[in-house]
Write a structure and sequence with these properties.
359 residues, alpha/beta, Purple Acid Phosphatase, chain A, domain 2, six-stranded mixed β-sheet, 35% strand, globular, binds fe (ii) ion
Length: 359
């Protein structure tokens, strides 16, 4: 069952506050006396399902709290629909601060295993924002498969700290994959790639799509990722052209990339794809100069530095493959940003920290 608790996703200069509504109801978010209604082309939404309310990041950061208001309807009739019940839920919100050490937790590759994600996060302790880095469900046959990432984010953040979302390859599989973008944060054009800013941290989220060539028989014609990846090449170029409002904006202290698939890495015969596009991404990242690329996908921990035997291209920064999965053990990454750089702690659902290393 979908959690009705909200998740505050950071995208661009806004937060997308997403929550599930179980009945026919209008919804809005109130911050500092300003109302942000869940409407489309002037029409209030009322159908049960996932809702997205976009709010300015600076306003929520400043106010430090928000209220989710739902108004149940007797029926969504054409004339005189009647509100029968109004519910208000207030949430405190703790924004990521600039100029201080910031702790984030990254999970991924859960494949539906919510409880072990929670345990691996507890092994790291308190944190300031969450990164969901793909393959949270095993497939997307039905809308209920979207419950895993949403419910993990709702439980780990309580709607009180921000979250970052990156799509993995398993989120592309099944009949519901084509409506995935309605349930999770999106950039302009409903894409799963975008930039974000949290305090002094700037990030670029990329979506590599599937992990094999589009014409692989496993996809049966359902994959069209090659052009989607080229769209992202153009997106990265636009970011570089607008660097003063992105990674060179005032106050940016750290630059990171989040990508489920570690696209700079050689991953073996079937999976080492898109030589031209991924090499171009890597070259463009040489201009952006991120401190690290945070990935998942391999089900094992690895910090791949430039010159590694697995590196396909000269890399501008290390790739941290920061999720682990074996038998009943799941691991994620605690990420600490401070003025000297970034430290990664690999923490597992068994309560162990298997590595702590400065990037
Ligand atoms: Fe994956």
């Amino acid at each position: 069952m979908f959690s009705t608790a909200p998740v505050v996703y950071a995208v661009g200069d806004e937060y997308q506050i997403m929550f599930y509504v179980r009945c026919t109801a209008y919804a809005k978010v109130v911050i500092g006396g300003r109302e942000f209604k869940d409407s489309v082309c002037g029409v209030m939404r009322s159908a049960k399902g996932m809702r997205r309310v976009r709010v300015p990041r600076s306003l929520l950061d400043e106010c430090g709290e928000y209220t989710v208001v739902t108004q149940n309807l007797l029926a969504r009739v054409a004339y005189n629909p009647k509100i029968i019940k109004t519910t208000e839920n207030k949430y405190k919100f703790r924004p990521v601060k600039s100029g201080t050490a910031v702790r984030a937790f990254m999970t991924g590759d859960a494949h539906g295993d919510i409880e072990n994600v929670i345990k691996s996060a507890k092994s790291f302790g308190a944190f300031d924002f969450l990164i969901l880095n793909g393959d949270m469900p095993n497939k997307c046959d039905r809308v209920r498969d979207f419950e895993t990432p949403h419910n993990v984010a709702a439980r780990l953040t309580g709607g009180e700290i921000p979250a970052i979302f990156a799509k993995g390859n398993h989120e592309n599989r099944g009949a519901a994959a084509e409506i995935f973008h309605n349930f999770f944060p999106v950039g302009s054009g409903d894409t799963l790639f975008y930039t974000f800013r949290l305090g002094g941290i700037w990030g670029l989220v990329l979506d590599c799509g599937e992990d094999k060539e589009d014409d692989n028989a496993e996809y049966g014609g359902s994959a069209d990722f090659s052009q989607y990846r080229r769209q992202q090449t153009e997106f990265i170029k636009r970011i570089i052209a607008d660097s003063e409002n992105e990674y060179e904006a005032p106050g940016v202290e750290h630059r990171i990339v989040v990508s489920h698939v570690p696209f700079i890495r050689d991953m073996g015969k079937l999976f080492t794809i898109e030589e031209k596009t991924f090499s171009e991404w890597t070259k463009l990242l040489g201009t952006i100069k991120p401190e690290a690329i945070f990935s998942a996908h391999l089900h094992r921990y690895e910090i791949m530095r430039n010159g590694s035997e697995y590196a396909r291209f000269p890399s501008p920064c290390p790739t941290v493959v920061g999720t682990f999965r074996r038998d009943n053990c799941l691991g994620g990454s605690g990420i600490t940003f401070d003025k000297d750089g970034i430290t990664v702690d690999f923490t597992t659902s068994e309560g162990k920290t298997v590595l702590s290393e400065k990037i």
